[in-house]
Amino acid sequence: MKELIEKGKLAKEASYKLASLSSDDKNNALSSIAKALRENTDYILTANKTDIDNGIAAGMSEGLIDRLRLTEDRINSMADGIDQIVSLPDPIGEVISQTRRPNGLKIGKIRVPLGVIGIIYEARPNVTADAAGLCVKSGNAVILRGGKEAINSNKAIVKVMQDAAYANGLPYGSINLIEDTTRESSVALMKLNDYLDVIIPRGGASLIRAVVENATVPAIETGTGNCHVYVDSSANLEMAKNIVINAKTQRPSVCNAEEKLLINRDIAEEFLPIIVPELTSRGVEIVGDETVCSMFPDSTAANEEDWATEYLSLKIGIKIVDSIDEAITHINKYNSGHSEAIITSDYNASQKFLDEIDAAAVYVNASTRFTDGFEFGYGAEIGISTQKIHARGPMGLEALTSTKFIVYGNGQIRK
Amino acid sequence: MKELIEKGKLAKEASYKLASLSSDDKNNALSSIAKALRENTDYILTANKTDIDNGIAAGMSEGLIDRLRLTEDRINSMADGIDQIVSLPDPIGEVISQTRRPNGLKIGKIRVPLGVIGIIYEARPNVTADAAGLCVKSGNAVILRGGKEAINSNKAIVKVMQDAAYANGLPYGSINLIEDTTRESSVALMKLNDYLDVIIPRGGASLIRAVVENATVPAIETGTGNCHVYVDSSANLEMAKNIVINAKTQRPSVCNAEEKLLINRDIAEEFLPIIVPELTSRGVEIVGDETVCSMFPDSTAANEEDWATEYLSLKIGIKIVDSIDEAITHINKYNSGHSEAIITSDYNASQKFLDEIDAAAVYVNASTRFTDGFEFGYGAEIGISTQKIHARGPMGLEALTSTKFIVYGNGQIRK
After folding, report:
1. pTM
2. Which residues of A touch B332 (CB under 8 A)?
3. Which domain holds residue A244?
4. Are residues B16 and B117 in the same domain?
5. Do B218 and A216 touch (CB under 8 A)?
6. B201/B78 same-domain check
7. Cα–Cα distance between B128 and B119 in angstroms, integer?
8. d(CA B125, CA B45)
9. Which tens digit of pLDDT belongs to each residue from A256-293?
10. Tens-place pLDDT, residues A86-135
């Protein structure tokens, strides 16, 4: 894998220089990148047309073609995204703490870049600009490895970004694209420990699984969301209805959409006839337990696999539970650690749910759809971590940093 | 691997209960554990004698036998360590931040346990008590997998801890020991993703490498230290001498000991005749570059491998560099990301070194030997992270925690 090693070396060398760049220098380069993306719209669209034509010839689905397609508007949005990253505060250099030890050593903990970040993603060319922008702003070099279907678009976007970046002060090697889109290059990137400090997959469950299984580079799992809404016996049912409909149907293809609805048995007979017709009238397919299927014979019986599945479509699993304890046990067993909500008017139920649910974001009386970097006030995000180490939940610029201890002495030796 | 799955399930279930235990409950159980370790000294020593006898019969080296050996004093130290953990503040439950978003959502970020922590270590039975104590205090369940040479000692220590813990309020399953000490059980533990949230190896380079190569569970690399001291042209040479001797010889077998000495060429002719006799008189073997070997013909010529090796013994590699830039480039190429020091009186050199060296701890005018949890003021440590994600440098209780977002709404839905 000559390409990987070459680009790994370049990125590593660039990362040392990037770490010391001032915010002004990084922002200046990023603004130039945004400008260059707008100015080279035609060049990028031409490359994208090749990908689209190839995709259509290969019989790609309309949904995938739509993800792959760039337009003048979409390129403008990419550039706007970069401009927005410029406006975010620079996390690097912050002294998080500094103490003076009894022996006089002054020990500071300072925020530094991670170094070199690998991003593995699918056929969404907008991720290319977005991820590179976030990495550069946080002082990291980046190695991008996008899906093969978008390779022409990615090459064009990266060329435009590199030309603008290197003409405006970013060290050569800051932004890299792996052009070999074989599966082998993807796996090799996951094992590039000599040059990569972290690898972040952005994509569906099978990509995440491939990274977890193959990566020897430290990885951050992102984005799978088997999210639940639990309607407690004390819930305001009008609120519950609005939240369930929003969480399930407002954008069903994303990771913070609701996949499962749990209803306390005390209110099931009242709430099911309210919520099921509302869902089915919006085209939602119902998969349910015995109670649900007996009340709504058009529903499909849920099997074990259903409870663990992230549908990412207009489909929902509904289960009746006897208690909040049963709801919590079910959620902790089947969830993917993303976003979980309780609808309740009961103080103790709300606290119990917040305390005992094991997930990145736990909600009382709100839609799970709010779990993202913009809604949480980070201004941008590189993904949503569903693991517990390093970062959990929406990852903004700070999640792309590490720390180091800087120690000021005047001759101290250990006794 | 039936044992792993059984204990994994137990630990996972215990972890949900542990997460909500109050500090008082955890401290009470830990104090009982410390007391039980002291009261069962004879029981533990008898088990340890079996390990020692087996070790001697197997021809184990004296150094390894010494690591393996427990005494009344050492068991007392283990108990003191647990008592000290009791006195540390509980990190769990801290609200790190809370904001109110424009839509009225109150989003808090709260510190929570990681969940279930796997610890893989070698034949040091003291790690058993130490690691379990830190995990319990931070609300985590723990699965311990120690070296086969210490299995009888570990079984005895864990039995004493479990009996005291479960009789004093810790949930059953909080502390687990894998009794299968085959290599297969170790590798299977590294892949126990269904039950483990993180795995932490504590031991030498080959153990760390095995974890990096095999683990699919998120891992934290710890403890390898190819540490450098760079003596700048502006250094106070008396201070440089004292620091180099301390960093190299005060305890050469540990990860924060100095392994390499870089000397600026401007002062090499003056400093080498000071430092080399001081080192050799203390039994330190010198491996050097051409200049060193020509001035001290008893030295061995360093090869490429030497620069990358952590000797962990009375051996040091010495290299003359033309500039601070050459020193920084050399260190960033060969170091293991642990601890690096510059000895200098020059302001710009100190800042440049602090800025550009890529390591967990960077020192000006002090010995690298200070990189540990106690010296940094954490009161205890589970290890020293040499990776950049999650935690870097000495890891105290906080490194054994994650966060979750708790979101208070009153009916918010996403527009």
Report:
1. 0.94
2. 16
3. 227-370
4. yes
5. no
6. yes
7. 9
8. 11
9. 999 999 999 999 999 999 999 999 999 999 999 999 99
10. 999 999 999 999 999 999 999 999 999 999 999 999 988 999 999 999 99
